[in-house]
Amino acid sequence: MTSSKGLATAAIVLLGLAVAPYAGLPVHFQSLAYLFYFWITLATSWNILSGYSGYFSFGHGAFFGAGMYAMANLATKLNWPFLPSALVAGVLAAFLALAVGAVVFRLKTIRGESFALITLATTFVLATIIVNTPIDGGPGVYLMGVDIPKLGPVAASTFYFLGLIVAAATVFVAWWLLRSSFGLALLAIHDDEDVAEVHGVSTFWLKMAAFALSSFIAGVMGSIQALYVSYVTVSETFNITVPLTVVLMSILGGSRHWAGPMLGAILITLLTSLSTDSEVALVAKALTGIVLTTAVLLMPSGILGAWLARRRRRQMAGHCAAKEPREVPAHTNEQVEASDLAVPREQATTASTRLPSGSEAEVVLRAQGLSKHFSGIKALQGVDLRLYRGEILGLLGPNGSGKSTFINVVSGHYRPTAGSFTVMGQECAGLAAHEIRRRGVSRTYQIPRPFSGLTVLQNVNLAALYGAGRLRGADAQRQARECLDFTDLADRADFFPDELNLHQRKFLELARALAARPSVILLDEVLSGLTPGEIASAVQTIKRIRDQGTSIVFVEHVMNAVMALSDRLVVLDQGQVIAEGAPREVMAREPVIRAYLGEDSRVS
């Protein structure tokens, strides 16, 4: 309903803007309106990559300038009509972005300031090339004789309508992106790119697509601006004004919201338009500086972001006041050990009888000779391991034994130095993390790493969208809510991760892992930091996951939980397997006692 009202309001506003020139809007105001549309388009297009994904670009002027010079040359030297020239200008800007992205996005070290500097350098490199070639030649390019399509009642109306069309389309694209799986993944990249990749997001191609789309829009707007100014020069086109202004506009309005750049563009254009009047020019410039400084210091998330955060705090306060406090059952260590963490007697000498034996068991994960070295440190050394369908495999070992490295290799964080591993018979060694995820591997993190800017539901929905099931739309939403129900987080669906306690964030990790419909879940110390009662709840949830047929690799230091849950144990020491078998049998072996428990420890 809210969405329908918003679309209806937008349609009414657009209709009003479309009829304004015919209703007698003065030429001066039509020209001013074009400036609003111009900056709204550039700021919003910049935000599609930089605001959503967090890849801060100072090179937007390069793509805008590429569009200006494409129009200047196509229209004057080749006599192309306006529309094909504008489209080609956008395509050329997009290809330039793809060429830059193909290099910088391949290197994980190029993020943050490095990416900003490289994009800024692109602007100067492109300007140098253009000024020293026939594209410009030095004196610039005149466009006064170019035939421009006539739109509206007066000459100024042409640019009014061209700007309105492009600005409206750009804002619509930005709005649509945030409602799509594409936009959700970009926001996840912004929060934690490595985790987004592990959760199935093909980060490289997503960034490439966003960069190309952002630059295409800038190129189209540049082509229109070339006709508007009628004279294109390198010094005016490739200066720092355009990229700096669009950055300030987006930050001022709020870069994580589709309407933020539009709001910032309107405010800054209003302030700068006042400076054209000599009587108030100094005051307007000072006011612009004060507004921007205040926004950066007091509202780092922008005006719109600060307003939304304040509104959310009021809603949360009302929610907490209206909600009855829930009774939390008290658990003691004795209660947990006596009930939920009790070790089945049949595990004393053999593996669980639930599992088929020998060739009857289906192997879902097989590691053979798996090794990982870090600058001479051998974290994994020829690990052989099998995980059967419906099995919980406990992976134990002292600190530094290679447990977390094994999980990082199998989930795709690291590429193995040697060896291989298969999932459901498919070779996965060397694949990107998102490809391994889509073959059926999910994982949790010892220290939860949710996407802080997404709600609990959005976090889980992203996992459903990009998991092994590759669900879409309503199906992904349904899967996400089912996983929240399963992990008792349904009433926290609209919360943000920083509003959850540690227990709930651990369960959010589980919900995200489950939403991908995996064959294998890698649990990395999911019980650490929890109270005995929370451990009992987590143990029961893990049992329910196993009972649904999902195979689990369980890394944990809470020994009662390990013994209660594990069907088999594999013990690592210094990156090598030193024991494998039924839990009590393995824990009684001398090498395990020496490496993991110490000389004086025994299992009762």
Detailed description of the structure:
The chain has three domains: 19-241, no CATH class; 342-440 and 519-597, Rossmann fold; 451-517, no CATH class. Helices cover 56% and strands 11% of the residues. The protein has helices spanning 2-19, 27-53, 60-77, 82-104, 113-131, 155-178, 181-198, 203-229, 234-237, 241-253, 260-274, 281-298, 302-322, 333-338, 403-411, 433-438, 456-465, 473-486, 502-515, 532-547, 559-565, 583-587, 590-597, and strands spanning 141-142, 231-232, 363-374, 377-388, 392-396, 418-423, 426-427, 441-443, 520-524, 551-555, 568-573, 576-581. The chain has a six-stranded mixed sheet with strand order 8-9-10-5-11-12, with helices on both faces. Strands 4-3-6-7 form a four-stranded antiparallel sheet, with helices on one face. Helix 6 packs antiparallel against helix 8 (203-229). It is built from 23 helices and twelve strands. By secondary structure, it is of the alpha/beta class.
Salient structural properties:
four-stranded antiparallel beta sheet; 23 helices; 3 domains; 604 residues
Blueprint (SSEs and pairs):
Layout (H helix, E strand, L loop, with lengths): L1 H18 L7 H27 L6 H18 L4 H23 L8 H19 L9 E2 L12 H24 L2 H18 L4 H27 L1 E2 L1 H4 L3 H13 L6 H15 L6 H18 L3 H21 L10 H6 L24 E12 L2 E12 L3 E5 L6 H9 L6 E6 L2 E2 L5 H6 L2 E3 L12 H10 L7 H14 L15 H14 L4 E5 L7 H16 L3 E5 L3 H7 L2 E6 L2 E6 L1 H5 L2 H8 L7
Parallel strand pairs: 5-10, 5-11, 8-9, 9-10
Antiparallel strand pairs: 1-2, 3-4, 3-6, 6-7, 11-12
